[in-house]
Amino acid sequence: MLVLLASAGIALLVSLLATPLFIRGFARIGWGQFIRDDGPQSHHVKRGTPTMGGLIFIVATLVGYFGGKLLGQDPPTLPALLVLLLIVGMGAVGFVDDYLKISNQRSLGLGGWAKVAGQLIVSVVFSVLVLTIPAGSTGMPLADPVISGVRDIPWLDLAPLGALGIILFVLWITVINVSAANAVNVTDGLDGLATGSMILSMVGYVFIAFWQFNQSCLSQLPPGDAARCYDVAQPLDIATLAATVMGALIGFLWWNTSPAQIFMGDVGSLALGGALAGFAVMTDTQLLLIVIAGLPIIVTGSVIVQRAYFKATGGKRVFLMTPLHHHFELKGWAEVTIVVRFWIITGLFVAAAVGAFYFEWTVHPR
């Protein structure tokens, strides 16, 4: 518990205190945001605002996690290191995309297929590692090829399919990661929107992973509770990492809230999507991610619906503009109003996910 609090606190302080330095440095070297001409007119005043701020909370997360481990004299664990690998890897893809936007002074960086290819490579590497690296002395891999909801779903066990099952599970994790990353990326369109939403999502994973630690199958539990324990690897360290990401985001939000002095960029949004996917895999709550990431899914869904309806009707629209937050901007809502209301929606989704997680434990057969 000491390591959890120390890691989160260090990450918060690093992010809060270092962000102004990054803002001045990014402004000096010209790493400013490029605004689309077809976007809301109110956004054109944001042109030139320093971007790629995701680098800050990625660094703060790394410093916080390893700093807390050093203070607590507690060695890092493989599950947390693999989630960090996923965060950094997805952030690297976003960094290249952001850098090309800045260099070319346009709203498009990497080509669509190139960007997806980078995400696929990172996802496959992560998937293969969690399926092959043993979790301690048991010799069992960190993740079983079983699709999970609130815990592993026995009838969705892909292991009996052999090599085909392993391939299908790798594809499944890849879909989760790429979908989460791009959903957060689409949500990152207003000052503080994605940052605040992801803070609430991290709170959800802190609770889930910490509860799994308290109800771990490796713990001495009462007879009734022992029958419904959680067989996940290093849940306390996953809770620590989720709290560390949360702390780093809180420090960043101080400067990212309206009017934002820095944007997270794709380096930040893709990294956060990777964090969501990594925590979902490591806590065996893969399908529950649909609820925890409810807001990004709705926002991304608005884009899909708009495009499909536009093509099907020959030019008609469901929304004034997508993603969804831009629709409400054109309806006359203030940016801060949209952000706060979307945070509330995120909070309700996270509360529902945590509630479903706990409810499953209460009704799980003893």
From TrEMBL:
Pathway: Cell wall biogenesis; peptidoglycan biosynthesis. One of its GO terms (biological process) is regulation of cell shape. It is found in: Cell membrane; Membrane. Pfam families: Glycos_transf_4, MraY_sig1. Mg(2+) binds at residues 185, 266. Its EC number is 2.7.8.13. It is an enzyme of class 2 (transferase). One of its GO terms (molecular function) is UDP-N-acetylmuramoyl-L-alanyl-D-glutamyl-meso-2,6-diaminopimelyl-D-alanyl-D-alanine:undecaprenyl-phosphate transferase activity. CDD domains: GT_MraY. It catalyses: UDP-N-acetyl-alpha-D-muramoyl-L-alanyl-gamma-D-glutamyl-meso-2,6-diaminopimeloyl-D-alanyl-D-alanine + di-trans,octa-cis-undecaprenyl phosphate = di-trans,octa-cis-undecaprenyl diphospho-N-acetyl-alpha-D-muramoyl-L-alanyl-D-glutamyl-meso-2,6-diaminopimeloyl-D-alanyl-D-alanine + UMP. Signal peptide: none annotated. Its cofactor is Mg(2+). GO terms for cellular component: plasma membrane. It is a multi-pass membrane protein. The keyword Magnesium applies. Keywords: Cell cycle, Cell division, Cell membrane, Cell shape, Cell wall biogenesis/degradation, Magnesium, Membrane, Metal-binding, Peptidoglycan synthesis, Transferase, Transmembrane, Transmembrane helix. The chain crosses the membrane at residues 6-27, 48-66, 78-96, 116-138, 158-180, 192-213, 233-255, 287-310, 338-359. HAMAP family: MraY (MF_00038). PANTHER family: PHOSPHO-N-ACETYLMURAMOYL-PENTAPEPTIDE-TRANSFERASE (PTHR22926), PHOSPHO-N-ACETYLMURAMOYL-PENTAPEPTIDE-TRANSFERASE HOMOLOG (PTHR22926:SF5). Belongs to the glycosyltransferase 4 family. MraY subfamily. Catalyzes the initial step of the lipid cycle reactions in the biosynthesis of the cell wall peptidoglycan: transfers peptidoglycan precursor phospho-MurNAc-pentapeptide from UDP-MurNAc-pentapeptide onto the lipid carrier undecaprenyl phosphate, yielding undecaprenyl-pyrophosphoryl-MurNAc-pentapeptide, known as lipid I. This is Phospho-N-acetylmuramoyl-pentapeptide-transferase. It comes from Agrococcus jenensis. The gene is mraY.
